[in-house]
Design brief:
The protein is mainly alpha-helical. It contains five helices and two strands. Helix 2 runs antiparallel to helix 3.
């Protein structure tokens, strides 16, 4: 069963996005939600949500062996919840 939520740490989020514009914060949140729903994101998914390349946002994601993007912290949080049975 897929967990319906993931842990969100406001202090860490604010610290990691402190110098993002409001638009960048919105895009970043949308990407995190998309990753939570879909798993790793394709280049097409990233471009659709970002509209254009944004180095600050893309730096928050790594590429997997298939060339898809994922946020490592979110991936770890999802795995922790799954391992604990949530």
């Amino acid at each position: 069963m897929k967990t319906p939520c993931f842990n969100f740490y406001p202090d860490n989020f604010i610290g990691g996005t402190q110098f993002f514009t409001d638009e960048q914060v919105g895009i970043y949140i949308r990407l995190l939600c998309a990753q939570f729903q879909k798993g790793s994101l394709t280049e097409k998914h990233m471009k659709f949500i970002c509209k254009s390349y944004d180095e600050d946002i893309y730096n928050k994601f790594k590429k997997d062996d298939c060339g898809n993007y994922y946020n490592e912290r979110l991936r770890n949080e999802i795995e922790k919840r799954q391992e604990s049975g949530y």
